[in-house]
Design brief:
Number of strands: 9
Helix content: 40-55%
Number of helices: 12
Strand order of the largest sheet: 3-2-1-4-5-9-8
Distance between the termini: 35 Å
Structural class: alpha/beta
Largest sheet: 7 strands, mixed
Strand content: 15-25%
CATH class of one domain: Alpha Beta
CATH superfamily of one domain: Vaccinia Virus protein VP39
Length: 276
């Protein structure tokens, strides 16, 4: 059902002159996001998606009867996402709102049972502020679900480079590589993307949760699912060829199984559930 929905949008987008590789990357991202949250959300819940991108996941969920609000500013490095939203048919407007704003500027009196964000919190200006704001918007027994890279792990996924100590030193060593490959990263401005990265990591999130007395759960099985995706997702394989080879080796020696026993700081990618 999801594949049919996405294929319909993909066909229409390409028909209108859209880039095939661009829409493929985001339809695959939608599949990943749906697989990660579909067992968590319920149809009688009020749901907020922070950073809905081109709106593919939000519109699909609304077509199934989920009541969802999606936030996306469509500015700076990711303005091209709006070109996909333009061909998305919002079938169930009663259940869906796409608001063109960032989370920091979003004002509402609504309370949400589920707030989720997929590959967005590494781009916000202050992730501590955003987590605190999201928690305040939760209804009783509500949950905040955050999926994002873990910058405690020495790998920067947007540019496929190792992390050397911190952001400043990493850029010192790889700035020429990043800028030289601007044409490769054709779907977003490399400088804007790099500047937006806030180096979010498990240790800093844990510190915030301890200070604010939030409950924090880490899904350590996400590493295996990310590796599975890297081995099956054609769009990712094309963009991250060398990393795919490493993942094949990791799978051969069953290293993802070991990751399920390691602390959150060692996880390359985070799936966090945070609540009051």
């Amino acid at each position: 059902m999801l594949s049919e929905y996405l294929n319909k949008i993909k066909t229409e987008y390409i028909k209108q002159g859209g880039d095939s590789n661009f829409i493929t990357a985001y339809t695959e991202e939608c599949v990943f996001g749906f697989n990660e949250i579909n067992t968590i959300i319920l149809k009688d819940q009020n749901i907020l998606e922070i950073g809905s991108g081109p709106g593919l996941l939000a519109t699909y969920l609304s077509s199934l009867g989920y009541r969802i609000t999606g936030l996306e500013p469509f500015d700076k490095a990711f303005k091209k996402l709006e070109s996909i939203l333009d061909v998305v048919n919002i079938e169930n407007k009663e259940y869906l709102k796409i608001i063109k704003t960032n989370f920091e500027a979003y004002e509402t009196s609504n309370k949400y049972d589920i707030i989720f964000s997929i590959n967005v919190f590494e781009h916000v200006e202050d992730f501590n502020y955003c987590i605190n704001k999201a928690i305040k918007l939760l209804a009783d027994n509500g949950k905040l679900i955050v999926l994002c890279p873990n910058y405690s792990f020495p790998y920067e996924p947007h540019f496929n480079i190792p992390i050397i100590v911190n952001k400043k030193i990493t850029y010192y060593f790889f700035s020429s590589y990043i800028n030289k490959n601007k044409n490769y990263y054709q779907y977003w401005d490399t400088e804007e993307c790099w500047e937006s990265l806030n180096w979010i990591n498990y240790k800093r999130i844990t510190k915030l949760c301890n200070v604010e007395n939030y409950s924090l759960y880490v899904d350590k099985n996400i590493t295996q699912r990310i590796i599975d995706r890297l081995l099956l997702d054609k769009a990712l394989i094309k963009r991250k060829g060398f990393l795919v080879k490493i993942c094949k080796l990791i799978n051969m020696i069953n290293l993802p199984y070991l990751y399920s026993f390691l602390p959150g700081s060692f996880q390359p990618y985070l799936k966090l559930t945070i609540n009051k």
